Amino acid sequence: MKNRLVFVGSYSQPLVLGSGETVPGNGEGVTVYRMDAAGHLARLSAAGKPNPTYLALSADQKFLYTVNELKEYHEEPSAAVSAYAVDPDSGKLTFLNRRMTGGADACCVSIGGDGRYLLAANFTGGSFSVLPILPDGSLATASCFIQHYGSGPNPTRQASPHVHQVMSDPAGRHVLVVDLGRDEIAVYGVDWSTGCVVPNAAPAIPSDPGDGPRQFVFDESGKFLYLVTELSNTVRVYAYDGDSGTAKFLQSLPTLPNDCVADTTSACIKLHPCGEFLYASNRGYDSIASYRVHQDGTLTPLSIMKTDGRTPRDFNITPDGGFLLCGLQDSNELILYGINPLNGQLTELERTPCNSPTAVLFADYE
User: How large is the average pLDDT for residues 9-27?
Assistant: First the structure.
């Protein structure tokens, strides 16, 4: 069994969300656990305050990067991102440095440019930034900052742009930026030698008006893109052309039962490592929907598993595909499922107390 660490981000102080809800924020920051072969978690350490609500690892897994989801930082209307060195033996995180993102409420980070850049999305700010990663793992000031403009048809949730995710495509030719406020994924060209993006490199990938796109994943081939929409609670499937950065819409499926009347918003989407199953979470009708993935990229619904706990905001799947670990933000716990390798079915195994969990990330070390 490899040395498997689990990094769990959380709200560590109160914050008003884009929905208007105030989260109490009683988490420890980034809590680090060790997971054994049976999936049991042992707490090792905690660090990373304030509000490290989303996480990313360097390609060699030596460094952890977090957002600091804040409305102000150093008296500026900006959130921040932080860098940490990871000790895989003890699970200790050593703080390296912190940089401003240029916009409020940073909510997502990813790694791009062959591991040389950190990409950060600012939700309330409606913007994103690109920050060089230095050889020692620390962050330089942003090499690029882009502000979005525009709105969508939902006056409560889409009165302005809301960037929820920024990530390069698998080939690294384009940077894709999910904007919940504008109902689209903007597509940028990128020059990784300078860390600067080029606007309008390809037409934006649209969703339906009022969808509120939130998060996407690519399949292993990079030919298919799966997008979960926060406001309309759907999974949308696109065929993606990595050369041109264009996408063709293929399919849309609900994440909820047909008779669902709950006030609910979708949150996270993940593809199983085998590529045959896709999962998406719902907050309100607290559940995880699962789908079978076909060779042509399309999906067939499999099941909708109730979590029996509030607000499954984020989850992740172990690298070997054996387990799914979900953070129940408002129930202050982690729920572990076993995954049936034949049909993707989830079976609840155990629950672990954890305050205000918002992000789950695995790393296997030798």
Answer: 89
C-alpha–C-alpha distance, residues 119 and 197, integer Å: 11
Which letter does DSSP use for residue 173 in this model? Answer: S
* pLDDT value of residue 16: 86
Query: For the range 64-68, what are the long-range contacts, defined as Cβ-Cβ under 8 Å and sequence gap of 24 or more?
Result: 64/7, 64/30, 64/93, 64/361, 65/109, 65/111, 65/118, 65/139, 66/9, 66/30, 66/109, 67/101, 67/106, 67/107, 67/108, 67/109, 67/120, 68/98, 68/106
- Token digits for 60? 């060699």
Cβ partners under 8 Å of residue 200, min gap 6: 188
Convert the pLDDT of each residue in 138-180 to its tens digit: 999 999 999 999 999 999 999 999 999 999 999 999 999 999 9
Residue 1 in this model has a pLDDT that exceeds 80: no
> Per the structure block, which two tokens stand in for 330?
């408002």
List the structure tokens of 199. 């606007």
In angstroms, the CA 277 to CA 83 distance is 32
Burial of 147 (0-12, 13-18, 19+ CB in 10 A): middle
Structure tokens at 337: 């499922």
The C-alpha atoms of residue 18 and residue 29 are separated, in whole angstroms, by 21
- CA dist 67 and 54 (Å) reads 6
The predicted-structure confidence for 317-352, as pLDDT tens digits, reads as follows: 999 999 999 999 999 999 999 999 999 999 999 999
Output the average pLDDT for the chain.
Answer: 97
Query: What average pLDDT score do residues 51-59 get?
Result: 97
CA distance 107 to 302: 30
Query: How many CA atoms lie within 13 Å of 115's alpha carbon, on the beta-carbon side?
Result: 11
Q: With contact defined as beta carbons under 8 Å apart, do 298 and 251 qualify?
A: yes
Task: Pull the structure tokens for residue 81.
Answer: 């991102």
Q: What is the mean pLDDT of residues 263-282?
A: 98
Residue 92's identity, in one-letter code, is: K
**Residue 131: Cβ-neighbour burial (10 angstroms; 0-12, 13-18, 19+):** buried
- CA–CA distance, 139 with 132 (Å, rounded to integer): 6
pLDDT at 21 over 90: no
Give, in order, the Cα–Cα distances in Å from 221 to each of 67, 113, 295, 297: 28, 18, 11, 10
Please, are residues 363 and 7 in contact by the beta-carbon 8 Å criterion?
yes
Three-state DSSP class for residue 221: coil
